[in-house]
Amino acid sequence: MMKLEYYDKWFRAKKSPVSPLAEEEAKKRHKEGDAYIALISYSGEKHQVVDIADGWVSVLFLDKHKRCYLSYDFKKKNDEKLFLSKAIHCEFSDSSDNCSVSTTFIFEENGSIYIERRNINNGETVQKESFAETVDNWDLFPEFGNYTSLLRENRNTE
Predict the structure, then answer these.
(1) pTM of this prediction?
(2) Does pLDDT of 67 surpass 80?
(3) How many domains does the chain have?
(4) DSSP state of 153
(5) How many angstroms separate the CA atoms of 74 and 82, rounded?
(6) In this structure, is residue 65 part of a structural domain?
């Protein structure tokens, strides 16, 4: 079962939301373009954070330890459209909160993709460029409370 809660912001270091908001206040912020987050929980183990602010939307995918293993940054292109411009995937070793391997994807609207894979443990970094269709990078700016389309993990990042 899905649970939806609203807060002022997400504190990544503490892996917790800050300052609860009443639904009416969050809805007002959404309408006026002011920042807020929606915390989406499923059966207490899977969590997602939708961070909405003027000009962008970020989605954090959290594991059972509330570590961000995947994040999406969408740029607001107009009142209705968003473009997925960056995705970061983190791999964790054991129960450490430190990312051991990160892969960053930077997407351009023309299909160009810059990919950087960084092994934090040994300092090795591999960079490459690629090209792909961007149809999966586009999304609609969400209606208040309806973030489902932004929560798709499998997008054009592989």
Answers:
(1) 0.91
(2) yes
(3) 1
(4) S
(5) 6
(6) yes
